[in-house]
TrEMBL record:
Family the entry assigns: Belongs to the bacterioferritin family.
Main function: Iron-storage protein, whose ferroxidase center binds Fe(2+), oxidizes it using dioxygen to Fe(3+), and participates in the subsequent Fe(3+) oxide mineral core formation within the central cavity of the BFR protein shell.
Reaction(s) catalysed (UniProt annotation): Fe(2+)(in) = Fe(2+)(out); 4 Fe(2+) + O2 + 4 H(+) = 4 Fe(3+) + 2 H2O
Cofactor: heme b
Binding site for Fe cation 1: 21, 54, 57, 130
Single GO cellular component term: cytosol
Entry keyword set: Heme, Iron, Iron storage, Metal-binding
InterPro entries: Bacterioferritin (IPR002024), Ferritin-like (IPR012347), Ferritin-like_diiron (IPR009040), Ferritin-like_SF (IPR009078), Ferritin_DPS_dom (IPR008331)
Chain sites annotated for binding heme b: 55
Record protein name field: Bacterioferritin
Molecular functions per Gene Ontology: ferric iron binding; ferroxidase activity; heme binding
Any single biological process term in GO: iron ion transport
Length: 158
């Protein structure tokens, strides 16, 4: 099933990306349910939307892998990191997004060095979207630090 021209490193990046994106779906979905139990309905919706965006990334990666002639395989899902406050959850999410950014940066650089224009563009697009997610999370964290912002910051139900 493997195409003769398929770069093994690109396939490795795709496999890791699929594992991380599916882990992100699990992370955001779990956190959405958790904050819903805290009564943070709008936050729950926002995290659910993030889970949907990450699932769309996973779907695109699956499509890319199939186009390259390999069966998608998410080798390892990470357990979701929870916290005792919204700020703790967002800090975990920001760190996770930065991990995706590092992976996509490395993959983009590899493809650029090896002259793989199509996969470089593919990884660059995902990189840009993850950079946007990380920026949104950083902004959200900063907003929570502002005086007068009231969010249930100490509730934990697990």
């Amino acid at each position: 099933m493997l195409h003769a021209k398929a770069d093994q490193r690109v396939l490795g990046y795709l496999g890791r990306a699929l594992s991380l994106e599916l882990s992100a779906v699990q992370l955001y979905s779990t956190q959405a349910r958790l904050v819903a139990t805290w009564g943070l309905t709008e936050v729950s919706k926002r995290l659910s939307n993030e889970a949907s965006e990450e699932m769309a990334h996973a779907d695109r990666i699956i499509g890319r892998m199939l186009a390259l002639g390999v069966a998608p395989n998410a080798s390892q899902l990470r357990p979701p990191k929870l916290g005792r406050s919204l700020q703790e959850l967002l800090q975990h999410n920001h760190a996770f997004e930065n991990e995706l950014i590092r992976l996509y940066t490395e993959a983009t650089q590899h493809c650029a060095r090896s002259g793989d224009h199509d996969n470089r563009l593919f990884f660059e697009e995902l990189l840009g979207e993850e950079q946007g997610h990380a920026a949104e999370l950083a902004k959200w964290l900063k907003e929570l630090e502002q005086p007068g912002v009231r969010v249930n910051k100490t509730r934990a139900t697990f």
